[in-house]
Write a structure and sequence with these properties.
single chain; globular
Length: about 140
């Protein structure tokens, strides 16, 4: 008996147009909302390349075209050069959760699962323990 595989999350959410909308909303948030100023500060002035990169990453991560994954370094390796603090990881996770939640025609179960998994991934990139204002003395 041949079971038909269920559609991927990529297909279920509407494919690349929906993924692009989420990536653009994410970068609009960090570009415009002062709550994400620390996160914005580690990005280049022009966000075009990272908007495209996040779109391609999310497409593949959700089960769509995997061109981003076939090009080389993994997401963790690409971020090693940046001091990712708990504050930055939390800002990233919060902005992504807001970007996903901002899409009205989105299955909430998929959105919640995406936000949780992406937040976990962001926090897994922490490579610098001290946030601004913290001290090493205990």
């Amino acid at each position: 008996m041949n079971a038909v595989a269920p559609p991927s999350p990529y297909v279920r959410i509407g494919g690349e147009p929906m993924v692009r909308a989420i990536a653009n909303r994410f970068y609009d948030l960090i570009d415009q909302d002062p709550a994400y100023a620390d996160l914005r500060a580690i990005h280049a002035a022009d966000l075009s390349a990272v908007r495209h990169g996040l779109t391609r990453f999310l497409c593949g991560w959700l089960g769509g075209p995997r061109d981003w994954f076939e090009r080389g370094p993994c997401i963790m390796s690409l971020h090693r050069a940046f001091p990712i603090t708990p504050l930055l990881a939390d800002q990233w996770a919060t902005a992504m959760t807001c970007a996903i939640a901002g899409e009205e025609d989105f299955d909430p179960a998929i959105g919640d699962a995406m936000a949780q998994a992406l937040g976990h991934m962001a926090r897994g990139m922490i490579n610098f323990a001290l946030d601004a204002g913290s001290s090493a003395a205990a």
